[in-house]
Design a protein that fits this description.
alpha/beta; Metallo-beta-lactamase, Chain A; 8-stranded mixed beta sheet; 6 helices
Amino acid sequence: MKKILFTAIALLIVSNANADLKLYVFDCGHLSFADVSNFGITNEETEVRELFVPCYLIDHPDGKMIWDAGLPLDIVGPRQEDATSWYENSIIDQLDAIGVSPQDIGYTAYSHFHYDHVGAANEFSTATLLIQETEYMAAFHDAESNPVFRPPLYSELVNSRKVLLQGDHDVFGDGSVVIISAPGHTPGHQVLKLELENFGPLVLSGDLYHFEISRQLRRTPVFNTDAEETLRSMNRVEVLTQEAGATFWMEHSLELANSLNLAPYYYD
């Protein structure tokens, strides 16, 4: 009887959190490639040459969290001819348009510390950073061994408040926003699982995959820190997604992005 009661209370807590949880999606840039072979696929295996770069705001009753912060802010502006990366409207301006400032953000969590995911990280230095300990050591103490990291993009976070994670983490303690450890792309890569009342469960993929063909063929980029670990993370996240009956959003998919309602619209 007690077990049934505790389960009912837990479900009620999650349900109440879900009712007020909102997810905003922002356009934080685009990347184009003439050759996609560095992603572990051939040019003949996919016609996709452009990737979307998203940022997300998770608005929870107990606080706001940024998940991924887009391309570097120094490239913001009109797209230049023949540009391979462009970013027309900064995440800061897009947040301002919905009445949110960087100081309103209580938490930040980045899927990983590649430049196209932490481009505006310094703007959120007052927030508490939720980061896997392995990613923290790689990005803040061994960046020279990880040339894809760009420390100036997150230099303001050196002395910021941090929670060093060693696996999965329930951000607000109610099961509605859960960071899932998925290493391999980088030492502490992670994905995010949300429980939205109307939309349902949702997994934000980080860079577990860049292309649909990568997911179909289980291919890993040549620049991943550990290909075998990436495959194990793929397996784990796919099982988690299936068991939760969750929708899976491949963050870099331009096709997906074109089907979404971007901010000021939100998903709940």
